[in-house]
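@channel anyone free to eyeball this complex?
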Amino acid sequence: MRLIWAVIRPLFHPRRTIKPTRDGWWCLLVAVGLGVAAINTGNNLLYLLVSALLALIVVSGILSEQAMRGLALTGIAPAEIYAGRPALFGAQIANRKRTLTSYSITVELLAPEARAIESGRRFIYFRRIEAGIERFATWEETLARRGRHRLAGVRIITRFPFGLFVKAGRPALADEVLVFPAVRSLSGESLRHLGDLGDAGARRRGRGNDLYDLRNYRSGDDPRFIHWRSSAKAEALMVRELEADTSHDARLVLVGRGHAGAEALEAGLSEAASIAVALVRAGAGVALEGPGVLVPLGHGRAHLRRVLTALALYHPDGARPLDPPAGGGGRRLREIRIPLA
Amino acid sequence: MPALLALRLVTYLMVGTGVAALYGAGLIGALGAALVVLAILVGWGHEQARERGAVRPALGWSLVATAAAAITVDLFYLAYSLLDGMVHLLLFLILLRLFVRRGLKDLRDAGLLSFFMLVAAAAISFNVSFLFVFVIFLMLGTSMLMLNHVVTELEQAGQRGAAGTAARRVFFRGPLTRVSLVAAAITFFLAGSLFFIIPRVGQAALPLRTQVGRMVTGFSDRVDLGSFGEIENDHSVVMRVYLTDESVDPARLPTLRWRGVAFDQFDGVTWSGMAAPRRFIRRGAAGDFAVGLPGTSSPPLRQEIYLEPIGTDTLFGAPRVLRLELRAPALVVDDMGGLSTSHAPARLHYTVESEVEPPARRGRPVPPLPAGERARYLQLPPLSPEIAQLAREVRAGARDPETAARRISEHLSTSYRYTLALKRQSSRPPLEEFLFVRRSGNCEYFAAAMTVMLRSEGIPSRVVAGFQQGEWNPYGRYFMVRFSDAHSWVEAHIEGRGWVTFDPSPRAEAPAETIPGYLSLYLDAARMRWYRYVVNWSLLDQVQLAQTVHRQASDFRVGLSLPRHWRMSPALLTVAGVAVAVLLAWLVGRHGPARRRTGTGPGMPAFYARALRLLAHRGLYPGVAETARQFASRVEAATPERAEAFVRLTGHYERARFGSTALTESEWQDVTRALAALGARRA
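replying in thread with the prediction:
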């Protein structure tokens, strides 16, 4: 049964699709017309010309298959994609054949808005890919809206050798990606003036100026942080750990449920994302609160992704008002209120 | 050569090849072809000049407008036929594309349109020159399509505003040229294979326009004396007769001729056979036409005849025809043994089985001619009594009609001279002038004179028109019969023997024609094969081919069957099978899928590669993006007892591979020690 399925399956899910080009349609049409004429007249020279056209079609199939066989396409999506901002995608095409070169290979970007970096077009052409060689293609794609997004992907196509047929492989990179809300750059000055001030800062490691701790040197540590005096005392390399500047830690509070209008909602979420990015990049901690959303205080790139993910997936219909945060347990953070209307 | 230039050159050559095809088919004359080639060259120069900006577009368009007007007039008023008009229109369209070319598309269109020139040529020609044109066109066509594809792709995927620049930078040479040639070769062989296997549901047809009427004067119901004189000066091949039986030695058939029509009525100037009764023969159950019954037990001579379309209904074959294979619904046979068919395609290729008349013996006796028939073959117009007198003198003393006929034949062939210079020298009737004034003539005069002399002596006789044997081509095993082999001879009815052939013409004494060289014979043999296997390829040939393949496959299978004593030894087969399996395993192991990655690669010192292999035995492999030191740290965690040795090896590896100096002697000793420690069963 498995064997039968293995035989039948390619019929429903072919590895490659083939479609005549305009020239290919003409070629087929002329072959049929000449075939009819040859049968009607019995003229063997017309049969010869029909045979030549059919042979041309067969050779086209053989050589295009040779070009496509053994090619592996691997798509590379960026780790962070922001709405409205061009994201850089890439694809690696490897020719895994032992000896044969693949000629005239095109990477087709299936998304209408995708554009190759160099040419600004939706096709990236490789005149030849030698056996055992990998080539890279990069392109930009701008995803307009935040949230989950299914990429159109890319595929390898070839019209080799005569341009009569387009043979296409299966699409790659047709994955689902998460698009973060659009962000804009905020200056440090404007950050300081957002929201009210919180309590005194808490002590933690970071990129501030004050000494937080000393510890043994580990591979990868910046040599500039080696504390030579302590190292001399301990007879081992010691490095300084600095205390983070926690005065910028903030809690972003989404106000409203965004029912007033999509534009206001998106603008609010974009504002929240921009502030979160700016704060985290400045070394501050960020918490996110709002209807149906709660991301506790955290810092660093991984935490920023959590915040941005929450903002990307925010949906007003699924947002339920949260209970007010339990007070008194921790220090009061600077609160930045962002209206969603 | 830059790809764009190569594309342009190949396209122009394709158009030139198409023009050659039209010329070969007679669709354009020499002057027309020269003009078109000139226009193509001007187009090439025009393009170069346009690229330099030296030509105004108005010039191109004015040329186009003029040509368009001329073509319109030609299509409706001047062209010989609609096909000719369409060909002229096609040429115009191609030249238009070349002259006002704006981009690649126009160039490609010109190349693709030139294919239709071959189609037009194929419709009216079956000359072997078409094969050469076809092969060249196929090679150029595949190159053009490939170049067009590459250049188009480059322009499509190129930088904005830089269309064409990329194509100019890419060169058509090396691998791409090889691929193009390979594609052309595969296409050619595939086309050949497909040609032979595509079922022929139609019949091989006569081309649309042929040399009709050329031989009507020589091989119709009427023939004037001396009408062969014109065609006897023409050395074009008119017929090829292939002897299918390879055991037949052509040297033993010196009197072989290809009989066409016979004439029984003579009016002093013209011979005719219009009064001869005709009958239709239908195709038999075996698909052939039974024309006559064998008179002897000797095997018939089988001939495959390839006749040029020369505008006659007559079918030629060695006398006496017994059987005919012909792709026609019916065959017309007159009572003098003349064969004809009005089905034009059938005359291109047919097969004849003949009972070649033995020189001295016949089988059963032949009944005498009925009185009416006898009178028919003794018919004579009012002629000078000198002719009858001459006949009496020549046959004097002959005891029987056969001896009399031989004497007359010998007299004519020895006392008269063969010539093709047939100028009138007197006002006497042609036959009398030949016999008594000029005393020279061509074969028609000899045959007519002998027939008249025989009839004046009461021996029934008739004139036969056909062809002499022709020239034997040993490379193709066929007789090459030319127009100049057209011949007339005499058939006389001899009591008890029937119709006996006499040839009074001393053609053998005529000046020998130029003997064709080996190359000429080779070329004609190729031409014969072209007619045999391409122009006349039919369903019957396909069936025979399939049967041959089947038979040979069976023979091969029988040939492959194992000897009996091998069958008794399955152990031998087992050993052979194991050997093949081992060989395959070795080949797969050597060239098969890459083994699990162990981190070895070019530039890696052998000692480090060995260290990696030793660790691989313990299941430790370097990761894809792992540095040597990171891998060393992992080894340290996994097998602390071997870590120290591997760390030392890693240090030496980094020095050997990335350092600028070679390892010292002491370092090599340490490498040896570390490898020993790493490979030890117990660290």
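from a first look: Residues 159-164, 204-217, 591-602 of chain B have pLDDT under 50 and may be disordered.
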